[in-house]
Amino acid sequence: MNQKRDSATIERLKQLAGKLFSEDITTARLAAHNLAWMQEDGLAVLRQALFGDYSRTTKKAAAYGLRSMNGRMKPLAAEVLEQGLKHRNRTTKAACVKSLQLLTTA
Fold this sequence. Notes:
This protein has 106 residues and is mainly alpha-helical. It is built from 6 helices and no strands. Helix 1 runs antiparallel to helix 2.
């Protein structure tokens, strides 16, 4: 049963990652929000999307997902966003600045 759940989780992560890389911002943000609920696995996918060579839409959606994280994952997500402030890609930086700004005012 545990292996079945693991394969189901992996399949769900693949589906959400595919949607995260969509050019439709609504689809990408919804996927990012769902990934935010998947704890460490979701954090890894969102981090990859934020720091990888992806579109502006994907990076903005990933930053949205990171700031949507709750509980024990919130400080880890904030740390990823802070790392993004030092990234050489200006789209990554801009997404992180905006998300951290929204995170601290919320």
